[in-house]
Amino acid sequence: MIYVGLDVSLNSVAVRAVDETGKLIREGTKLADAPSIVQYLEPWADQVERVGLEAGPTSEWLTANLIELGLPAISLEARQVKGGAFGHAGEDRSE
Q1: 1: which of 19, 56, 89, 90 lies 20 to 30 Å off by Cα?
Q2: What percent of the chain has pLDDT over 70?
Q3: Taking a C-beta distance cutoff of 8 angstroms, is the pair 1, 24 a contact?
Q4: Lowest mean pLDDT among 33-37, 76-80, 84-88
Q5: What is the model's pLDDT at position 15?
Q6: Distance, CA of 3 to CA of 25 (rounded, Å)
Q7: Burial annotation 43-72 (CB, 10 A radius, 16+ → b, else e)
Q8: What average pLDDT is seen over the chain?
Q9: Considering the entire predicted model, what is its pTM?
Q10: Residues forming beta bridges with residue 24, ordered by sequence position
Q11: How would you write the chain as a 3-class SS string?
Q12: Is residue 20 over pLDDT 90?
C-alpha cells in the first residue's frame, strides 16, 4: 500500500509517497494539475491506497480531477491532520 500527501500551491504540487511502514517511496514537485500527478505516481498506481491534500481554494478541483483519473483522493481539513485523524501505520486511533 502506498499513501500520498500533496502540498498544493498555485502553480506546483509537492508530492510525497510512502509505504505502509512510512518508508519514503518517491518525493518531488510537479505541475499543479491532475494528469501530471497521475503520471508521476503511475508506477505505483495500483498500490495507491489514499491521496490526501489539505482542503483549500485550489484543492477542491484537484481532488475531483484526481478521483476522475482513478486516484483515491481526499481533501483534509488541517485540524484533521494535526489531530492525528489518520494516525500512523499500525496504530489504531479509534475510540
Answers
A1: 56
A2: 82
A3: no
A4: 84-88
A5: 96
A6: 9
A7: eeeeebeebbbbbeeebeebbebbeeeebe
A8: 84
A9: 0.80
A10: 18
A11: CEEEEEEECCCEEEEEEEECCCCEEEEEEEECCHHHHHHHHHHHHHHEEEEEEECCCCHHHHHHHHHHCCCCEEEECHHHHHCCCCCCCCCCCCC
A12: yes
Full strand arrangement of the beta sheet holding 48-54: 24-31, 12-19, 2-8, 48-54, 73-76
| pLDDT of 59 over the 90 cut | no
Q: Is the pLDDT of residue 90 over 90?
A: no
Contact 52, 6 (CB under 8 A): yes
- Please give the Cα distance from 55 to 21 (Å, whole number): 25
| 89 CB-side CA count, 13 A | 11
Q: What is the largest CA-CA distance in the chain?
A: 39
User: Which residue bears the cell 485550489?
Assistant: 58
